[in-house]
Amino acid sequence: MHHRFWTTQELRTEGWSKHSVADAVAKGRLTLVRRGHYAAPGTPEGLVRAMRVGGPATASTATQALGIWTEPEPPLDVAVPLNTPRLRDPDDAALPLLPRNDVRLHWVQHLTRSRSATGIVPIGMVFQHLLQVVRPEFAVAALDSALHDRFLHPRDLATIAAGVPGHLQALLGAADGRRESGIESIARYLLQRLGLHVDVQVQIDGVGRVDLLVEGRLIIELDGRKWHPDFELDRRRDADAAIGRYRTLRFTWKQVIYDWPRVQAAVLAALAA
Questions:
Q1: CA pseudo-torsion sign 191, 196, 200, 206
Q2: C-alpha distances in Å from residue 94, one per residue of 24, 34, 42, 52, 149
Q3: DSSP per-residue codes, 212-242
Q4: How far apart are the C-alpha atoms of 114 and 118, rounded to whole Å?
Q5: CA dist., res. 27 & res. 208, Å (int)
Q6: 152 by DSSP, 3-state: which?
Q7: pLDDT at 45 over 60
Q8: 103 near 36, Cβ under 8 Å?
Q9: Averaged pLDDT of the chain
Q10: How do residues 128-173 score in pLDDT, each as one tens digit?
Q11: Percent of the chain scoring above 70 in pLDDT
């Protein structure tokens, strides 16, 4: 990952004078993060805000910057070395950090300067912190996303497990890199937690590939988009599934995230019919 942040001393070492630094800030070639700390233009806002507080991003702020699936409306997650002298407000470095619900601090023993320079802690630490602060289904969705997009390798899961409490280690076993959307991961995990058998991305003759197949007979399709251009195709697939004696339920992103009890009730009722 490329260099995103510099201290004044690092810029001086690279040949920048006090005047050239001030000129670069004035012209937008550098961003003043806090006294003595600067960022490259175009650095994701979450990383800048985290470094303004006092350390690199971790947990949801890091996954969001990397393009990994992230919980809805995440707070600012900051990894703070124990020897950090002063914590500052993420939006105004002139102010001290006061307790606020939209900032989560993750205290760490030590971080190398190279990690601070990128603005994100190592990916294993990102997930060790994430598992401890987000809902279990959101943690699984983020793990699935990271595995699918190769930010994580399956062998990395054991290392992550070693750094989290025992009751969270089962979440790592639930990770499945075949997922194609966050809501697919969430629905799969929550249904499996009910003791249901769930297959993902199943190819059904005459129907095509479906998101989830529950107990071998209930198709669940999940749509994370605000609008769906394949309305007619989807209805034809549903009819073909019915001909094959499958039942189909469709749910939106909002239903899965914010109205899961209703989704669960619909699934259980369909299976009981």
A1: negative
A2: 21, 8, 22, 10, 39
A3: EEETTTEEEEEE-SSS-TTHHHHHHHHHHHH
A4: 7
A5: 54
A6: coil
A7: yes
A8: no
A9: 92
A10: 999 999 999 999 999 999 999 999 999 999 999 999 999 999 999 9
A11: 95
Q: Spell out the domains of the chain, with CATH numbers in brackets.
A: 5-173 (no CATH), 182-272 (3.40.960.10)
Query: What pTM does this model have?
Result: 0.89
Strands 208-214 and 218-223 turn out to be: antiparallel
Q: How many angstroms separate the CA atoms of 122 and 185, rounded?
A: 24
Structure tokens that stand for 122 in this block: 């190592």
User: Rounded distance, CA 28 to CA 60, Å?
Assistant: 27
Distance CA 233, CA 16 (A): 60
Cα–Cα distance for residue pair 192/4, rounded to 1 Å: 41
Q: What is the per-residue DSSP string for 46-102?
A: HHHHHHHHTS-B-HHHHHHHHT----SS--EEEEEETT----B-SS-TTSBPPP-TT
pLDDT of the residue at 29: 95
Return d(Cα 224, Cα 229) in angstroms, integer. Answer: 12
Residue 224's pLDDT is 65
Count Cα neighbours of 189 within 13 Å in the Cβ-side half-sphere: 28
Which residue type, as a one-letter code, is found at position 220? Answer: I
What's the pLDDT tens digit per position in 214-260? 999 999 999 865 445 576 677 777 787 777 788 999 999 999 999 99
Tokens linked to 224: 């994370």
